[in-house]
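Hi support team,

I submitted a single chain yesterday and got back a structure, but I'm not sure I'm reading the token output correctly. Could someone confirm the output below corresponds to the sequence I sent? I've pasted both exactly as they appear in my results page.

Thanks,
R.
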Amino acid sequence: MNKIIGIDTSNYTTSLAVLDCDDMKVLNFRKLLPVKKGELGLRQSDAVFHHTKQLPELLEMAGDVLRFPQAVGVSVKPRPIEGSYMPCFLVGEASAMSMANAVDVPLYRTSHQTGHILAALYSCKRLDLLKNERFLAFHVSGGTTDMLICSPDRENVVNITDIGHSLDLKAGQLIDRTGVMLGLDFPCGSELEKLAKKSKAEFKIKPVIKDRCCCLSGVENKVRKMLDEGVGREDIAKYAIKFISRTIFEMTSSALNDFGEMPVVYAGGVMSDKIIADELSKEFDCNFASSGFSCDNAAGVAVFAAIKRGFL
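Hi R., thanks for writing in. Yes, this is the structure output for that exact sequence:
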């Protein structure tokens, strides 16, 4: 059995994945980092502590599934660019190094963003896009709202070029800040979507786009004003999600207009929102990470290592 282990220790989730390259099945083991009610995330020191505690728990949970791997992959930084760094990824890297050295197999390092894109391609059965000339990918989460042109790369599997991003607040931050204002628990995406689906309100939304980059900080101010004015919680939730949806729509349209038609892939936790996915699917021929592979996970990191090992 050609088995690959992937590890990802992001600022949201401790993740472990085991990819069986023979049947292309992935076992995902994940645990959210604990955040106190009313707070909007964790300090890096706290994230490191929780990963140090939770990763061994996931390894124990996986048990014998981890035996006899052919390679280990790990995310070591947020983005595949020079200077990209977060301490929380050190926990995963240290564990991956120990595991690979203990069983004498190759260790492959990649970025969290690369892992998200590969997880999306794996889950929607579009790994063939890695052989194409290029495709458009979005990584939309608590720390990113990035629009990327991706192309095959021998060393890094996929070459990623940023052609648009948020100039201020990230889409996931907007969702979480809106949710916490409405009394929801962090991370707020799933509960905010449930709330928004109860709304019958309609909104005229004009995103703020500058050279394919978006601005979202004004939406947070608008949401706070709506709450102060007594607007219903479900309507506020819908407004925030609809604004993000329209923003991603405008950015996608701009990129395809500027660079020509190409396949589009949406990755990251925000893109698991069905309201957003349904609206974008009406307009574009696009691919979404399936449930369980859009939020932070280690599956794409395992796919990266499998490709580098020559199994895919």
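A quick pointer for reading it: The chain has a mean pLDDT of 96. Let us know if anything else looks off.

Best,
Support desk
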